[in-house]
Amino acid sequence: MNVILIAVIVLGGIGLISALILYVASKKFAVHEDPRIAQVSEVLPQANCGGCGYPGCSGFATACVKAADGGSLGDLNCAPGGKAVMEKVAGILGLQAGEAAPKVAVVRCNGTCEARPRVVEFNGASSCKIQQMTGMGETMCGYGCLGGGDCVSACLFAAITVNPQTGLAEVDESKCTACGACAKACPRGIIEIRPAGPKGRRMVVLCNNKDKGAVANKACKSACIGCGKCVKTCDKFEAITLENNLAWIDPEKCKMCRKCEEACPKGAIRGFNFPPRKPKAETADNAQQAAAPKAEAPVAAKAETPATEVKQD
Amino acid sequence: MKTFRLGGVHPAENKLSAGSPIREAALPKQAVFSMFQHIGAPAKPVVQKGDVVKVGTLLGEAGGFVSAPIYSSVSGKVAKVDAALDASGTRRLAVYVDVEGDEWEESIDRSTELVKLSERPELDAKTIVEKIKNAGIVGMGGATFPCHVKLCPPPGCKAECVIINAVECEPYLTADHRLMLEHADEILEGVELIMKAVDVTRGYVGIENNKPDAIALMQEKAQSHPNIEIVPLKVKYPQGGEKQLIDAVIGRQVPAPPAIPINVGAVVQNVGTAFAIYQAVMKNKPLIDRVITVTGKSVKNPSNLMARLGTPFQQLIDECGGLPEDTGKIIGGGPMMGKALMSLEVPMTKGSSGLLIMNKKEARRSEPDPCIRCAKCVSACPMGLEPYLLASVSAQHDWETAENNDIVSCIECGSCQFTCPSRRPLLDNIRLGKSTVMGIIRSRAAAAKK
């Protein structure tokens, strides 16, 4: 009995002393973490894509809370979460969500199998980076899409695929979050993260070829040859610049007039998500067709009117 | 018989052109001189459109210490200085020369008479290295490392012997073999010059014993060069690798990078380089031509051509009976380490040791199967690496593990891929890993300097 009692007292005593030490230590060495960080972290998508420029979602949450202490969220934007998530984050931090223009990844190459003939065959390990190490890849264009799918494996949202018909990477805009992982994975830097534009409409030069016109033209029928016609067309807005034999449209300055698209002799400039344009020749036909029923209608009316009149009489 | 200790494989030799003597290739209509014919800084063009050049006129000056000047191998007019597709598969700066006649610079001695080092006692080490540097000589086995850099050992290192690489372990290639049979005396004088340049008294010439005629001839000629020993070696690929050759000939192993052969006292030069050095020092002839083997099972006339640099490959193939109909792949260099070419417009450069035309059946790479962990690649690796591991971590972009497993020691010989029963693209992935890891190491070193 006595032995049990001593054991209970001794163990209980040790327990009490330890509890006291732990209590003091937890008060003395407490690390203060802003509870808002955990709250913000909870509403983030947890994709850890790094598209925001911070290491993972918790890094972004910390940055948001820090920015909120400064009074505004500034440029901070969670690309995959989009507006909905940023509103929630702003709500937690007691701020107004800023209007971040939605962005999208654009594959700047239009060298389909037809336009850009495959002159050799690459049958090594399937990876763009390895193909790039061998030189130009399968075509004579040293700048175009290799079609090896490094961007496909880099995309966490399954938004990019390689189309076997064209041999080009294609972005599914509904899934793309503009995190930029594909742009980093592409050894040729073809993929650009651009503002999606109003209603998703945007003008893009679908080429990355910096060779001189003659060389580029030989390699690919739809390559930008640096002729500068688009630059001249756009002299009013100065949205297009020509550098290293390659045109580039500044999305900030572009007014979406689509004149450059018409001016480009190679079809390298393309507008996305515009309503289908009525080609000029057809517009004339349409006008005739539209006019024809109108011309017929009065005739029918005239024919009918007397009949009714007759009936009425 | 001597050989290196670790790994190695035995690919079929296929030395089809061994019996065909070196012949002069015809002059091209237009020669293209890439400014990127060597490792290191590219050469800077010093000519302009319209300039008249002769054989031996300087076209591009060296762009730094680790670089080499480039000379015209033809006479004519400079057509343009523009980008040209080269053997690397990319378009890079080059000088185009339209050929007119064949006029040589007067300073070049075109006689075939042998000049011995013993007849030219005024040549000291410094003059020899300077002449080699000015002649634009690079390692002619294919690595194209500027030759004079190897002949100027870094402080604290002393060369103890010169090893000449006459192994030619790549299947199909016979350029070095023929060169030895036809220019043995000049090569041995070249070796003497290298020995004098680095101030050593011991020289070895390593030759694989699948070239018994060359071994016999060189041994006979070497009797008048008591300091040079001809070392017959057991046939095994990749014996021509610098580190493998040092191990085979003098039994020393070069530690992992950043150690280089001079750290174990060896200076290794190719047999073609020795010949070029002889011509540069004794005949004042800059590096403007070289022997190239044009071969392949379907080629009508597999031959060894003495061709001017800048000649388009198309012309060399035409001289050997034209491009066969069933061509599947054209490789610049040998089948193990060479690089497939994009186009036949590509001009010959200082490192072009061979042009191999594979037929469709040979060229086809079979579909890879999963790794069966047989470790054949591990036993084949001459550097003692684990290729299956390096390849898989490279494919997963795990650069840290790749670096920890010494991926930078890989010499890219391809023995692993050759021996793999599952035909996995091991070297493709290892090359990617190696170049990425080397980039990481360089940027780290640059950051540490700052």
* Oligomer kind: heterodimer
Average pLDDT of chain A works out at: 83
If classified by CATH, what would the architecture of the largest domain in chain A be? 2-Layer Sandwich
Largest sheet of chain B: 6 strands, mixed
CATH class of the largest domain in chain A: Alpha Beta
CATH topology of the largest domain in chain A: Alpha-Beta Plaits
Helical proportion of chain A, percent range: 40-55%
Query: How are the strands ordered across the major sheet of chain B?
Result: 1-14-13-17-15-16
Q: CATH class of the largest domain in chain B, anyone?
A: Alpha Beta
Main sheet: strand order of chain A: 1-4
Overall average residue pLDDT of chain B: 92
**Based on the structure given, which CATH architecture of the largest domain in chain B is correct?**
3-Layer(aba) Sandwich
Number of helices of chain B: 14
Secondary-structure-derived class of chain A: alpha+beta
Radius of gyration of chain A: 32 Å
The termini of chain A sit apart by 129 Å
Structure characterization notes:
The complex is a heterodimer of chains A (313) and B (450). The C terminus of chain A is likely disordered. Chain A is elongated and about 100 Å long. Chain A contains eleven helices and eight strands. Chain A folds into two domains: 59 residues, Orthogonal Bundle (3-methyladenine DNA Glycosylase II, Chain A, domain 3), CATH 1.10.15; 170 residues, 2-Layer Sandwich (Alpha-Beta Plaits), CATH 3.30.70.20. Chain A has 313 residues and is an alpha+beta fold. Chain A has a two-stranded antiparallel ribbon with strand order 1-4. Chain A has a two-stranded antiparallel sheet with strand order 2-3. In chain A, strands 5-8 form a two-stranded antiparallel sheet. In chain A, helix 2 crosses helix 3 and helix 2 packs antiparallel against helix 4. The longest helix of chain A has 33 residues. Chain B has 450 residues and is of the alpha/beta class. Chain B folds into three domains: 155 residues, Ubiquitin-like (UB roll), CATH 3.10.20.600; 167 residues, 3-Layer(aba) Sandwich (Rossmann fold); 74 residues, no CATH class. Chain B contains 14 helices and 17 strands. In chain B, the strands form four sheets. A six-stranded mixed sheet of chain B has the order 1-14-13-17-15-16, sandwiched between helices. In chain B, helix 1 packs across helix 4, helix 4 crosses helix 7 and helix 11 packs across helix 14. The N and C termini of chain B lie far apart (51 Å).
